[in-house]
Amino acid sequence: MSSPRPALFAALSGLLFGLGLAVSGMADPDKVLNFLDPLGDWDPSLALVMAGALMVALPGFAWVRRRGAAVCGPLQLPTHTRVDRDLLLGAAIFGIGWGLAGYCPGPALAGLGRLAPESLWVVPAMFAGFWIADRLKR
């Protein structure tokens, strides 16, 4: 029987991430869209949230890399490091969707949890995109 520890860490990480989204206001698509509109009602707070996230994440990644192991399971680092057509196309599709809806996957799921009307179409569209991308890769 496998240890429940990885699942517990995953659940706690998800809860902490969701709490961070809620506290920072990043689960609100209007806040995100205002950040993406520097000629309109621009809100620079998303840049501050991103900077704060980097200040926490970068030392954590460095620690895990030096340690050679994750806290709860094997260390899985990406092996693909080249910028290619698939990466650029995926980034463009992600950016277009983010700019149109004001949601990326984490906040979209958080919005679904609070039954935000936009998330009721964004989340199914997101999963349809995952499915289509998976089929195209095969």
Automatic annotation (TrEMBL):
<feature type="transmembrane region" description="Helical">
    <location>
        <begin position="85"/>
        <end position="103"/>
    </location>
</feature>
<keyword id="KW-0472">Membrane</keyword>
<dbReference type="GO" id="GO:0003735">
    <property type="term" value="F:structural constituent of ribosome"/>
</dbReference>
<keyword id="KW-1133">Transmembrane helix</keyword>
<dbReference type="GO" id="GO:0006412">
    <property type="term" value="P:translation"/>
</dbReference>
<feature type="transmembrane region" description="Helical">
    <location>
        <begin position="115"/>
        <end position="133"/>
    </location>
</feature>
<dbReference type="InterPro" id="IPR018268">
    <property type="entry name" value="Ribosomal_uS10_CS"/>
</dbReference>
<protein>
    <recommendedName>
        <fullName>YeeE/YedE family protein</fullName>
    </recommendedName>
</protein>
<keyword id="KW-0812">Transmembrane</keyword>
<dbReference type="GO" id="GO:0003723">
    <property type="term" value="F:RNA binding"/>
</dbReference>
<dbReference type="GO" id="GO:0005840">
    <property type="term" value="C:ribosome"/>
</dbReference>
<feature type="transmembrane region" description="Helical">
    <location>
        <begin position="46"/>
        <end position="64"/>
    </location>
</feature>
<dbReference type="InterPro" id="IPR046513">
    <property type="entry name" value="DUF6691"/>
</dbReference>
<dbReference type="Pfam" id="PF20398">
    <property type="entry name" value="DUF6691"/>
</dbReference>
